[in-house]
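[audit] Reproducing an earlier prediction to check determinism. Same input, same settings, fresh worker. If the tokens differ from the archived copy the diff job will pick it up downstream; this log only records the rerun itself.
[audit] input (131 residues):
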Amino acid sequence: MKYLRQFCIILIVSFLGEILHVLIPLPVPASVYGLVLMLTALCTGILKTEQVGAAADFLIEIMPVMFIPAAVGLLDAWPVLKPVCLPVIAITVITTVIVMAVTGQVTQRMIRHKPRKKEQGLPEQPRQNSQ
């Protein structure tokens, strides 16, 4: 019963995302509206993680199975995709490298600019002797 209740909550939030997609004339997928609603509900405390956690974990576990129909669809469309396959692969590799490089640079800058405990005026922690 717990899983059914949690799954219904997730479906209701997804349905609200669909309603927002119809009402708001922006080119944003309904699933994104649903995710924003779920994030807002979890951050504000309207929903607790325990109220949707088990069903969400299950859905994440079976997510790879959901990609099988899309992969089969790509195989069916191979004659159309074959001429553009090389440019798509090149674009995918180039953008992946760019995203990895930018993410690494941003992370390094954030780590360098992270305030240290000494600079914040907090007392230093005594060192533990490892024996």
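[audit] rerun output stored. Observation attached for the diff report: The chain has a mean pLDDT of 89.
[audit] end
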